[in-house]
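Exercise 7. Predict the structure of Histidine--tRNA ligase from Thalassolituus oleivorans MIL-1.
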Amino acid sequence: MAKNIQAIRGMNDVLPAQSPVWQYLEGTVKDVLAGYGYDEIRMPILEQTALFKRSIGEVTDIVEKEMYTFEDRNGDSLTLRPEGTASCVRACEEHGLLYNQTQRLWYTGPMFRHERPQKGRYRQFFQIGVETFGMATPDIDAEVILMTARLWQFLGLSDSVTLQLNTLGSNEARARYRDALVEFLSERKDQLDEDSLRRLETNPLRVLDSKDPQTQAVLVGAPELHDYLDDESREHFATLRDILDSAGVKYEINQRLVRGLDYYCKTVFEWVTDKLGAQGTVCAGGRYDGLVEQLGGKPTPAVGFAMGVERLILLLETLELIPAEVLQTIDVYVCGVGVGADKAALLLSDRIRGEHPWLRVQTHCGGGSFKSQMKKADKSGAHFALLLGESEIADGNVTVKDMRGGADQQTLAQADVSAWLAEHVN
Ligand code: HAM
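Solution. The predicted structure, encoded as tokens:
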């Protein structure tokens, strides 16, 4: 027998039982974003490879090792997007959305990185991302951070995530710091791990990210980024901190936070949790004032972030923070047993939906005994089952059964049942 074909490693199906949780998270995020006046943008999943090389950086892990890149039938090099920022900038430029105006945008969808799959790290994963354009002042940095803090509050996650904050300064300041760091580390090459030695040549700031204990020990005495900051970045950061302090948003300054993508300047941040093991960053972003110009546009300040949907869902599940009503997707289950009952059940269901469109009504299809239909009604999670037997049909009635056991079974006229349900389904 032929072997069953399976999904690609690191690419997950979201099964029907999980979908309500996804919808709950996505719905809550959308409500928060709407509350701040952000508009949705949808970009293609495939882009020209050059877009990501030019924006994320040639010597980043993503571009060097993780992109799904292939030649299409025309011989063009295409890449499945590893993130949304570059695509969003491209789309905005292409459609003139950055000309003399500000933008507050969000998107959601799958991203692709050929990483080693583990809990919270996948090869196809979903992000909900936010990008803002045309605002150079720290108020917008603060707004996007406050928006995420509000989302954690809505989801009940405020006590489970912490904000790590840093500033990378201007490009010039960072270049000066980079020189100092390279000089310092070059004198201590013998104490660095292999990965850090490689990064020292290609992307030295990323050495700060090393998890190797010996490299960490070397870094204790390394030059500090904040000693090299330019005045403007320093002031920008101070204003941002002042707003966050006044809004009561707590954060930790982490001078080692440099991010794995090259386009950032000034503010960078990550929301992290210690409840998910190694993949604890649930949301990350920062300012990227140089990227629009780098991709061929006019200099345009920009700030954004993206959150990992799977990681947030894992966190909500781990902490048992999914409201019970999210998992209940049906209010009323309509059963019919006997001659003409299938048709009567369908017609009654449709009548109820017509009169109260918000009621979620599932009609039993496929026949079966009264007992087996009641079993299905129970499994559906519905609050009420409606029963149509031959006598009910003959009398124009319906029997209502409270599946949660609260009230006695009762018989109502079919004409009255919608109004009754609307009153009793909470
Ligand atoms: P990033 O840090 O590469 O930033 O990804 C953002 C978030 O996506 C991470 O914090 C994590 O929650 C999730 N994520 C990343 N890789 C994986 C993976 N392999 N499996 C599961 N989840 C993952 C960016 O992508 C930037 N574009 C964010 C940004 C937007 N900066 C400015 N604007």
